[in-house]
Specification:
The complex is a heterodimer. Chain A is of the alpha+beta class. Chain A has four helices and 13 strands. Chain B is an alpha/beta fold. Helix content of chain B is about 45%, strand content about 20%. Chain B has five helices and five strands; from the N terminus they run E-H-E-H-E-H-E-H-E-H. Chain B has a five-stranded parallel β-sheet. In chain B, helix 4 links the parallel strand 4 and strand 5. Chain B is globular and about 35 Å long. The relative contact order of chain B is 0.17. The mean pLDDT of chain B is about 90. Classes of the chains: A alpha+beta, B alpha/beta. At the A-B interface, strand 7 and helix 3 of A face helix 2 and helix 3 of B.
Chain lengths: ~290, ~130
Amino acid sequence: MAEQIDTNYILERVGVQPPYFALKNLKFDKENGTISGEVPIEQYSEMEHSPITAAESGRHLAILGCCLLSLVNTEKGKFYYLASSAIYKSYFTSDAIDTKFLLGYASGNFTKKREGNAKAQLKTVNQKLLCDLDVSYHIFPERIFQRFFSQHKHEPIKCAKKFNPYKNIPNFTSIQTSNENKTLKATLNNLSPENCLGHFPMYSAIPIAIMAHHLVSASGQLLKKLTNINDLRYYVEQVKLSAPYLCFVNENLNLQINFSENKEKSYTFHGIANTDTNKPVGEMTITLKTII
Amino acid sequence: MSKQILIIDDEDLIIKSLSKLLTKSGYDVSTANTGMVALELIDNNDFNLIISDIRMPWVNGIDTIKEITNTLKADNRPLPAIIFITGFADKNLETAAKDFTPAAYLHKPIDIKDFLKVVQKSLSYSNQH
């Protein structure tokens, strides 16, 4: 029997906070070791044809997995669950879904003292599977996290109560595409702590899901250039991601997308995101499937 | 009492092989696969020597050793000898690594005989200081 979980209890045990944390109605089934919750749909993508973008699905499901791990973590206090790798797979449906929220489910466990894994699924309210995510975390006690990243600490941010930067994500700039080399380069800069609200309070780091959003969008733009289809629409078939470092808001993020291969309507890209100092923040293999 | 050595590396294979080699040679070995785990171990243990990879996820070896050194200095605890190991030639990191004294710098793949000699030399230096 699943029990309702007090969101405040979870928020005392994890690094992410609202509005980055946007799950509602969390329920924990202790017997099966699974958690479920309502997943809002906040982002919109012009080219990605799906009830919810892959990046936003990844964001909510990774947070759901971290909620589960926080519930089975026997140590007291706050922990930062940093997603280090993930595999996303879509079960694309062309059905129109008129809903303001979806349902997320996750199971998982600690694989080492400071590492964990979660397997999560996103379904419609009618239980139609939309996607799944297999995500691994490195887990850091708050005091250790604070000691390593003290140079990035800032004063608490004062924003309007309902301000949500994840509904309108700033675009990347300085876009350079090369049809000849099948590459796209872009920069994500001038971000402020407000753009990363809730991730993490007083240590604003660009969420991996936001980096993933930009790498997917950039792949879509490159695909549009390469196919020369103006009203191109696609869905994200699969993503493999590794994210070994945090990128804080005072660091610029340079994105590079390279086209890898094409099989029928599926196009695969390799994307990397590095800081100006060449810190490798993320690497993704992204497969987009076009919809005609 | 055996010398206490901490190995920090994100590669399981390196951790296992170095750990086995050092244990066979009579040292007490602890391991950490990230700088974060290493910092937790430092809070409760005194190590004579730390062997750290440089390129690691989340916090690199240089920043890990910096934070460990700061912690030990703040607590007036003895500083361990340091050996950095890396699979990549990176001049900036190599220069930064040389800021730590006494510190040795080894490239992967590691020659076992050389490695044990560097370990002994580093430990004897830490004995004298």
